[in-house]
Design brief:
By secondary structure, the chain is α+β, with helices and mostly antiparallel strands. The chain contains three helices and two strands, in the order H-E-H-E-H.
Length: 110
Amino acid sequence: MAWFNDKYFSNNLETLDPRASPLLYEWFDHLPPTLFIVASHDPLRDDSFEYAKKLTSAGVPNETLVVEGALHSFFSLPGHFKLCCDEAYSRMTTFIKRQAKTRGIPSASL
């Protein structure tokens, strides 16, 4: 990750900005229900789990899907990770429909 940080940030202080590292925010209770889709072989996987814990602590409904056998970029490679993407698409669809239903949005509108 150090290589990526060197390419993305101008200096180490920028890594302390919550816009670059959302786990550094102090409040999470204003966020909407969240679905985390996490690749099992993602170097940021544990950060996703930590973020989900912070949302849970703040009372924000959230769910996590760990896609086994997937890399960080799997979602941009549906031809290569077809089954992984199908699993993620299915979970996203279910999550969105459930959230819409709780807000009284008809499924025909989706």
